[in-house]
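## retry 2 of 3
previous attempt timed out at serialization; input unchanged, resubmitting
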Amino acid sequence: MIRHFPLAGLLRLRHLQQDQAASDLAEANARVAANEARRGRARSALSATAITPDTVAAMNAMAAARSSSRSMLADLDALGRNNAASLAEAQAAFDAARAEAIALEKLEVRHHETARAEDLRAEQIVLDEIASTRWHRDRTDTPTSPQKGDSE
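## retry succeeded, writing output
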């Protein structure tokens, strides 16, 4: 007899929550990776400018460009810290969702094992009853042989 897990709906909900948390975690990882890539490109661009200025105006422009690049790097560093914090939050949310799903999965496994044991026990009771009935029937159908001394 098939008995359905009574918390199957809740387990499906927990799996959906886990999938959503995994999606959020993937997005946070993507944001961190994209920020790291932008930061690396900005650092490369900042270090690649080895041009010597010929005029004061070129020197001022170069200083302004470097200052702007440093400001952009500082902004990217701040964004990186924010992304790292949201990544940690997303990881914690995923871990919590996974733990809730695992707990229900263990309950489901235990439910199925219990149901299977009950089914096997009921089947064994039926088999024992059939064997007992047959044994009693065979015993009453077989005539008993006369004992020595009974016929004399």
